[in-house]
Amino acid sequence: MECISIFDMLKIGVGPSSSHTLGPWRAGRRWIAELKDNNVFEAVSGITIDLFGSLSLTGKGHATDVAVILGLCGYDPQTIDVSTIAPIINSIKTDKKLILNNEICISFNPTSQIIFNREFKEFHPNGMTFHAILNNGKKMSSSFYSIGGGFVVKEERKRKEKKLEDFQCFPLPIQKATDLLQYCTSQDKKVSEIVLENERSLRSDTEINERIAQIWNTMLESIYIGCHTEGTLPGGLNVRRRAYDTHKKLIGTTPYSTPTEWIESIRDTEVKFRQILKWVSCFALAVNEVNASLGRVVTAPTNGSAGVIPAVMMYYMVIENHDANFDDVKQFMLVAGEIGSLFKKGATISAAMGGCQAEIGVSSAMAAGALTELMGGTPEQVLMASEIAMEHHLGLTCDPIGGLVQVPCIERNAMGAIKAINACEMALDTDAANAKVPLDKVIETMWETAQDMNTKYKETSEGGLAIKVSLSDC
Questions:
Q1: What is the DSSP string of 274-291?
Q2: Which residues of 446-455 are buried (b: 16+ CB within 10 A; e: fewer)?
Q3: Consecutive 10-residue runs of the chain (474 residues): their mean pLDDT?
Q4: Which of 222, 309, 346, 434 sits 20 to 30 Å CA-CA off 298?
Q5: Pairing of strands 296-299, 114-117
Q6: Distance of alpha carbon 175 from alpha carbon 351, whole angstroms
Q7: Residues 309, 284: contact at Cβ < 8 Å?
Q8: Measuring CA to CA, how many Å separate 267 from each of 20, 231, 321, 323?
Q9: Is 131 helix (H, G, I), strand (E, B) or coil?
Q10: DSSP assignments along 406-419, one per residue
């Protein structure tokens, strides 16, 4: 059992991958803290890093090596100026020196001291081991695992008992969808109200509101930046940014100068059915083009699926309810975060463990449930919408071309957002009491499917599109 806050599921970070970029970044920072706790940080004279399995096979395309370096330098993925990333990395590669935690300068050659191993660790496909050489010649090593969504653990799970204690601290502990629905029924409350009660046991209303506002502002900023940035994405696939062109055709000559004015401009535009599809796709594409270029996004629940939830929230704000405000955003994020936590507890949100069903599928389920509550759906319909969205992502593989989070990843966010809206509408038009497949059952099925899936379809770039199309073809 785990106590998972919505802020565990929705994290602010840098793209392109929560498991391959944000996770290793955070692992680097945790290792620094570990060295300090053991009072050996000041004695470090050299380091090497071993990357294993999926982190190795697609690490170059996912900027895993860049993320590890930035974490070791002490930079915070939530606050770093993303425009400084390239200069920082170029300087380290040129000078062959790294300032550990921005405190100790050591010799460091990324080419030889970050080692990509094809071997898979038994505990999890995304393994990494940090090695330190101390001034007295002694060596120290520590391993971490990036398990998806920016979550990082150690194999021995030393915090397991603490996690269990935290879980018991939740006034309304939830492990499965049936638990959530039972609370909603017995207390006659919405899903968001149950989730909010749990969040209040961890932090004040003021902090909850501030953090949700920060999350939404980051999402909105990523949409805005993506819609206003043209050119080609980095990495060698020569993928042209499409959100810019789509947005330009849709918005026309409507004047605006801020994201707030921009939203109003979209609301004032006469939107027809085909344009709704284009707008939703545009929003999702925009976020994931920012993600693919090492921009700042929100893991929802991962970076690779970061575009679905903001696209669906924007759909509600500019299409369904022009009076939507922060309260609607808060309600949406509370529900989405809780749905995501159910999948993390009962299955996985790591593509390296479960394929793309664990990323786009989960994000679509999160968005579908959240939108359904905003549209007036019952708790039963919220869970039904989430189930429908995931049901039609079951078995979706992760096969990124060139190990880059671009093709087919960016388009899949648009498809996931459209499916979420469709799932919401179907749930709202259905008596949820007659649902044939409970959400818990589809979560169990997703996990069984993940375990049966061939490893080459789990973020290794060794199967599917990844071997049919190469960088040289582009």
A1: HHHHHHHHHHHHHHHHHH
A2: bbebbeebeb
A3: 89 96 97 97 97 95 96 97 97 97 97 95 94 96 96 72 57 96 98 98 97 98 98 95 96 91 90 88 98 97 98 97 97 98 97 97 98 98 98 97 96 98 97 90 98 96 92 71
A4: 346
A5: unpaired
A6: 22
A7: no
A8: 37, 27, 9, 10
A9: strand
A10: -TTHHHHHHHHHHH
pTM exceeds 0.85 for this model: yes
The encoded tokens of residue 265 equal 């401009």
Q: Which two tokens stand for residue 290?
A: 């920012």
Sequence letter at residue 315: Y
CA–CA separation, 11 and 473 (whole Å): 35
Apex 84 CA angle, 149 and 9, nearest 5:
15
CA-based nearest residue to 79, from 188, 206, 205, 218? 218
Given this model, what pLDDT does residue 70 score? 98
* CB 77 within 8 Å of CB 13: yes
In this structure, are strands 151-153 and 139-148 parallel, antiparallel, or unpaired?
antiparallel
Residue pair 145/52 in contact (Cβ under 8 Å)? The answer is no
Closest-CA residue to 314 (of 298, 288, 332, 302): 332
Q: Cα torsion for 429, 430, 436, 442, to the nearest 10°?
A: 50
3-state secondary structure of 142: strand
How long is the chain? 474
| Cα within 13 Å of Cα(341), Cβ side | 27
What pLDDT score does 156 carry? Answer: 63
Q: Which two tokens stand for residue 255?
A: 């004047």
Dist. CA 392–CA 402, nearest whole Å: 26
Q: Note the helical H segments in 188-204.
A: 191-199
Count other Cβ atoms within 10 Å, centred on residue 200: 13
- By the 8 A CB rule, do 31 and 130 touch? yes
pLDDT of residue 230: 97
Q: Strand, coil or helix: what is 384? A: helix
- In sequence order, the 6+-apart residues with CB closer than 8 A to the CB of 220 are 259, 310, 314
User: Strand pairing of 11-14 and 296-299?
Assistant: antiparallel
């060295």: which residue's tokens? 35
Quick check: 222 and 287 in contact, CB under 8 A? yes
Cα torsion 418, 18, 199, 183 to 10°: value is 50
Q: How far apart are CA 14 and CA 80, in angstroms?
A: 9
Yes or no: say if 329 and 216 are a contact pair by the CB < 8 Å rule: yes
Q: Which residues pair with 297 in a beta bridge?
A: 13
Contact 345, 352 (CB under 8 A): no
